[in-house]
């Protein structure tokens, strides 16, 4: 029988998921049931129930030094339950918990921190018919700018081994233990179980090398399946790996094509249908999921687009939650990427400001030409300043290539043109005034 290891990526005990609506409390679903602490306890319960040989933690077990006491209780309870069941707990420290895990390891019996002070260390897990060596390296400080794999010792014997490491793959300038996938593949371990990036990799079952991902997604950007991984290693060093969707919380993005919406009243029904379709699509993957945070994107074109803004604002205000088979679906973000259905060719024939704006929108959709290039070049500095403003600092850098700039200009231009035409139709402003108020071109 192969050695069975339950492997967990970034836990971040002490942190709570962001953007969840307060109304979940009305369903007796407290925020504490959706935290990394709950994901950890579910993993511990699974490990004991399925009699695994060890639990491996790939760093950032604790959110930070100032969350020590909030993390201490859940970690202590889990390690105590695993030790009582005869299950070893091996961990490495990441950049978030480079100091605090030392104190945990000193005070928690059954919690083995590998590779303290940035020195590789191994331990052998033994069973009557099987043994596996686990190599680990821990961050000596919050930043480490060198490749830790260059100092990995040679294998002392023929025991199959796995590597446990918190690192930054294929980013040579990183201050978080940069290394490369090629370097890891050239080393002896039959599997490399990595922490640091919260999006899990599609791990190759024949020789897994990659990120385990966060056990519980911490915000709406951490979409898809999350949870621990079961790694099986036999005496010949052959492996199998499988992700277990044990996270109590999941984040998903789904799209609603506004072309299918027949009226404002139909909009709510369309939202409900979209969430039901998401539930059916997820199927058995959410058997243990208590809540799904949904980012709903409106896409497509509709002549009703402007009229849908009111029901869209109403949905944002009321914190919509839909329950299917005991799983709560909460709309946490509404993103309007839809566009009005406008006859740009006809509008562009006009000599008014609407015609001018339509002609410039047609330029964006047309082939390369000096006028199109001038529009793009004029917009890039303003968009760059917006992307670099303080409010966006926590997000990934925004691409400002021609494709991204054209998409942004087109979306904004169509919105302005839609409002301009509505104002003229309603008689609330002159065409010139409406154009000046929304002059993006």
What does this structure look like?
The protein has 441 residues and is α/β, with parallel strands linked by helices. It folds into three domains: 3-246, Purple Acid Phosphatase, chain A, domain 2; 248-341; 343-441, no CATH class. The protein is 32% helix and 22% strand. It contains eleven helices and 19 strands. The protein has helices at 36-49, 68-84, 100-107, 181-185, 264-282, 309-318, 344-347, 353-365, 370-387, 402-426, 431-437; strands at residues 3-8, 54-58, 88-92, 111-113, 121-127, 130-137, 161-166, 168-169, 178-179, 191-195, 209-211, 229-233, 239-243, 249-257, 291-299, 301-302, 321-324, 327-336, 339-340. A six-stranded mixed β-sheet has the order 4-3-2-1-12-13. A five-stranded mixed β-sheet has the order 5-6-7-10-11. Strand 5 and strand 6 (130-137) form a beta hairpin. The longest helix has 25 residues, at 402-426. It is elongated. Residues 391-396 and 428-441 have low confidence and may be disordered.
């Amino acid at each position: 029988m192969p050695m069975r290891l339950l492997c967990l990526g970034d836990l971040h005990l002490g942190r709570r998921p962001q953007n969840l609506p307060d109304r979940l409390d009305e369903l007796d679903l407290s925020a504490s049931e959706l935290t990394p602490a709950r994901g950890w306890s579910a993993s511990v319960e699974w490990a004991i129930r399925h009699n695994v040989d060890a639990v491996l933690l790939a760093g950032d077990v604790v959110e930070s030094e100032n969350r020590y006491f909030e993390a201490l209780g859940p970690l202590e309870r889990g390690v105590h339950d695993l030790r009582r069941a005869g299950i070893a707990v091996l961990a490495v420290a990441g950049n978030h918990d480079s100091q605090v895990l030392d104190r945990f390891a000193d005070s928690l019996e059954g919690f083995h921190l590998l590779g303290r002070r940035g020195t590789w260390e191994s331990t052998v897990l033994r069973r009557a018919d099987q043994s596996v060596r686990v190599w680990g390296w821990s961050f000596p400080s919050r930043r480490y700018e060198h490749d830790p794999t260059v100092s990995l010792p040679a294998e002392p014997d023929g025991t199959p081994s796995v590597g446990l490491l918190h690192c930054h793959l294929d980013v040579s300038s990183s201050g978080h233990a940069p290394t490369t996938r090629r370097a890891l593949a050239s080393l002896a371990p039959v599997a490399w179980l990595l922490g640091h990036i919260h999006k899990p990799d599609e791990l190759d079952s024949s020789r897994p090398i990659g990120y385990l991902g966060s056990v519980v997604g911490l915000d709406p950007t951490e979409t898809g399946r999350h949870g621990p991984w079961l790694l099986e290693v036999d005496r010949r060093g052959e492996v199998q790996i499988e992700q277990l969707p044990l996270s109590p919380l999941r984040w998903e993005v789904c799209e609603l094509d506004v072309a299918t919406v027949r009226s404002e009243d139909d909009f709510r029904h369309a939202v409900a249908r979209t969430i039901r379709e998401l539930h059916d699509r997820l199927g058995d993957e959410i058997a243990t999921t208590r809540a799904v945070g949904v980012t709903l994107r409106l896409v497509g074109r509709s002549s009703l687009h402007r009229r849908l803004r009111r029901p869209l604002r109403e949905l944002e205000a009321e914190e919509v939650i839909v329950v299917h088979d005991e799983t709560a679906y909460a709309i946490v973000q509404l993103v309007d990427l839809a566009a009005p259905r406008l006859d740009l060719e006809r509008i562009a024939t006009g000599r008014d400001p609407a015609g001018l704006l339509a002609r410039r929108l047609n330029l964006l959709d047309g082939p390369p030409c000096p006028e199109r290039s001038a529009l793009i070049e004029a917009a890039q500095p303003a968009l760059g300043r917006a992307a670099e403003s303080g409010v966006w600092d926590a997000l990934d850098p925004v691409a400002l290539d021609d494709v991204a700039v054209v998409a942004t200009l087109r979306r904004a231009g169509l919105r302005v043109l839609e409002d301009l035409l509505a104002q003229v139709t309603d008689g609330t402003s002159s065409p010139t005034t409406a154009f000046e108020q929304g002059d993006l071109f």
